[in-house]
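A quick aside before the break. I want you to see a complete sequence-to-structure record at least once, exactly as it would be stored in a machine-readable document. Don't worry about memorizing anything.
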Amino acid sequence: MDIAEAGVRIPVGDVALNADVAVPGEPRGAVLFAHGSGSGRHSPRNRYVAGRLQAARLVTVLADLLTAAEERRDAVTGELRFDIGLLAGRVAALTDWARADARTADLGIGLFGASTGAAAALVAAAERPDAVRTVVSRGGRPDLADDFLTRVRQSTLLVVGGEDPAVIDLNLRAMRRMPGEVRLEIVPGASHLFAEPGTLEQVARLATDWFVSRL
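That is the input. The structure line, written in tokens, reads:
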């Protein structure tokens, strides 16, 4: 499959975010990635999932939600990765960019969030109800979206590792507050990072099936 790839800089307020855009032939949707917990567009786990989505003819946009200077600061303090307001604002801005960009303007948009990025994706979905169609969370912290959860009416898939009981509980609590369609999928034998053999492949399959059916 031919995939057109490009690096772009997306202006967001007074900063510009680096992003990698991959466009397969005859795309049928677009997925924007919301990284969390000190991760970025080079995350091997998210890049693996992105590759599977591209094979299903979905555009992927992997963006760094923090600038290089902010990443250096966060590496010391760890504070920005939990600044859900900041991260959500940038995911919302990426969504606005995708709606305007010629490569994605006519496509349905989904958000894929990991860890704290899942909370940012859900807040952005609540704030962009007409732009975001669906959300997938991998090992996410949807609870950090707090009261925004009650405004998320988009279909949402929560994927959690079976060996991550604390996060399972947080996801269960969060989904009870969400008025839209919500499904929880627990991957047996997987820890928080889905590092165990075969577990990330299950995440990719679940996410691909979900996005394809809703975009």
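Two observations worth writing down. DSSP finds six helices and eight strands in the chain. The helical segments are 44-55, 68-77, 84-100, 116-127, 165-175, 199-214. We'll return to this after the break.
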